[in-house]
Design goal:
mainly alpha, Serine Threonine Protein Phosphatase 5, Tetratricopeptide repeat, 71% helix, 0% strand, globular, TPR_rpt, mRNA binding, PPR_rpt
C-alpha cells in the first residue's frame, strides 16, 4: 500500500476492545461503528479532493484502498461502480483483491467464488490474502468442510500459505472435531521456513483442545505458547484466560503465576489482564480468592478499574452474599474515574437496591447518590427512596429532579 492510502488505512483500523462489565454493549457498538465510519469518511474525502487537484496522484495501491473504503462507507454497489469505472490498465491484482474483500465482507459466497475464479484466470490470485479471504468467508458461513480444499488448492497453485492460512484451517478442523488432521497441519506449518511461529500459533491449537475438553493436550500447547510470549500483554491476557477456562486449581495457579510474571515485566498495568483471572476464580466459586487477588494488587499501589470490583460484586450476588456484593459495588463506584465509560450491571444494581430498602435510609441514600454519578436516576431508585422515606418526601422529589434535570 502506498502514500496517502497507507496513512489513513492505519488510522481507520478497528481496535479490539474488552467490553466493560455490565455495560450496554449494543449502545457502545453503535457508537463505535459510527465513529469508525466517520474516521474512514474524512480521509476518503480528503484523498479524493487531493487527487482531483493533482496534489497527490493515486498509486494502484491507493486505488485499491479507496475501493475497499468505498465499500465500507457507501456499500457494495458504490464499490462495484468504482471498480467498473476504472480502465483495464488500472484494474490490477490489488484492485481485484479489494473487490473480493468487499464481496467477502458482505458474505456473498457465489459472487466471491466467481470473482476469485476471474482472478485465477487472469493470474491475479497469486497471494495468500485472496485465499485467506475465501476461507474466512467459509468460516463465517459455517462451511468448515470447504476450508481444507481451499488450502490444498492454494498449495497446488504455487501460492505459499501464511500463518493466517494455517490458523484458519486449524480452526476449521477444530470446529469439525478433526483433531488428527489438526496436529498434522501444525507439523506442516512448523516445517515452513518462511513462517515465524509465535504465541498465537500454539494458543490457536490450545484453544481448540480446551473447547474439546482435552485438558492434557491443551496444557502441552499452552506451555509451548508461554515460551513464545516475549512480554506480550495480549498474549498473557489470552493465556491466563485459557488456563482459567481449564478451571482446576492447578491451572488457576498457573494462570496466577503467569499474571505475576506479566506484572514483573509490564510497562503499563492494564487491569483487564488480572480481570480474566478474577472471572476464572469467580466462575469456580473461589470468590474470596478473587477478592484477595484484587486487594493484593491494590496494596502494590495499583488503582483498579470499576469493572474489577463489579466482577466480584456480581459473584457475591450470585451466592446471595448481599453484604459483600454491596461493599464491592461501593468500591467499584469509588474508582469510576478509572473508566468513565463503565456502567454497573442493571441486575446487580436492582438486587442491591431491593436489599438496601430494609437496611436503613442513610445507606440507601448514599448508594443512590453514588449511582447517579454513573447512571441517571430511574423509577426503581426513586421508588426505593420513597419506600425508605429518606428525609421526607420533599427531599426525595428534589433528588429525583436533580438527577433528571427537571
Amino acid at each position: 500500500m502506498d502514500g496517502f492510502g497507507r496513512q489513513w488505512k492505519k488510522k481507520s483500523g478497528r481496535k479490539k476492545g474488552v467490553p466493560n462489565h455490565g455495560e450496554d454493549k449494543n449502545m457502545e457498538n453503535k457508537s463505535g461503528d459510527s465513529q469508525i465510519r466517520e474516521q474512514i469518511r474524512m480521509p476518503n474525502r480528503i484523498s479524493e479532493w487531493m487527487s482531483r487537484k493533482g496534489l497527490c496522484p493515486f498509486s494502484p495501491g491507493d486505488r485499491a484502498v479507496q475501493l475497499d473504503v468505498i465499500g465500507r462507507v457507501h456499500g457494495l454497489n458504490a464499490a462495484e461502480s468504482y471498480f467498473y469505472k476504472l480502465n483495464e490498465q488500472e484494474r490490477i491484482d490489488k484492485i481485484y483483491g479489494a473487490l473480493l474483500n468487499c464481496y467477502v465482507r458482505e458474505g456473498l459466497v457465489d459472487k466471491s467464488i466467481s470473482h476469485m475464479q476471474k482472478m485465477k484466470d487472469m493470474g491475479f490470485a497469486s497471494s495468500s490474502l485472496s485465499y485467506n479471504n475465501l476461507m474466512s468467508l467459509y468460516t463465517r458461513n459455517g462451511q468448515f468442510e470447504k476450508i481444507p480444499d481451499v488450502l490444498s488448492e492454494m498449495k497446488k497453485n504455487g501460492v505459499c500459505p501464511d500463518s493466517v492460512s494455517y490458523k484458519i484451517c486449524m480452526n476449521s478442523y477444530g470446529a469439525r472435531s478433526g483433531l488428527n488432521n489438526l496436529e498434522k497441519l501444525l507439523t506442516e506449518m512448523e516445517s515452513q521456513p518462511h513462517i515465524a511461529l509465535d504465541w498465537t500459533t500454539y494458543t490457536t491449537v490450545a484453544n481448540i483442545y480446551v473447547k474439546a475438553g482435552l485438558k492434557e493436550n491443551a496444557l502441552i500447547f499452552l506451555k509451548k505458547s508461554e515460551e513464545k510470549l516475549q512480554k506480550n500483554a495480549l498474549g498473557y491476557n489470552y493465556l491466563i484466560s485459557l488456563y482459567s477456562r481449564l478451571g482446576n486449581k492447578d491451572e488457576l495457579e498457573e494462570a496466577k503465576a503467569l499474571l505475576e510474571e506479566w506484572e514483573s515485566n509490564c510497562y503499563f498495568y492494564d487491569f483487564r489482564v488480572p480481570n480474566i483471572l478474577l472471572i476464572g476464580y469467580c466462575q469456580k466459586g473461589l470468590i474470596k480468592k478473587a477478592e484477595e487477588l484484587l486487594r493484593g494488587t491494590i496494596k502494590k499501589g495499583k488503582t483498579p478499574i470499576p469493572n474489577s470490583w463489579a466482577i466480584i460484586a456480581a459473584a457475591y450476588l450470585e451466592k446471595e452474599n448481599m453484604e459483600k456484593a454491596f461493599k464491592c459495588m461501593k468500591n467499584a463506584l469509588a474508582v469510576k474515574a478509572e473508566n468513565p465509560g463503565w456502567r454497573p450491571k442493571p441486575s446487580v444494581v436492582s438486587s442491591i437496591l431491593n436489599w438496601l430498602r430494609d437496611k436503613g435510609e442513610v445507606e440507601l441514600e448514599a448508594f443512590v447518590s453514588s449511582l447517579r454519578t454513573v447512571i441517571a436516576i430511574n423509577t426503581e431508585m426513586y421508588q426505593a427512596l420513597i419506600e425508605a422515606s429518606i428525609s421526607g418526601d420533599k427531599n426525595v422529589k428534589g433528588l429525583y429532579r436533580q438527577n433528571n434535570h427537571v
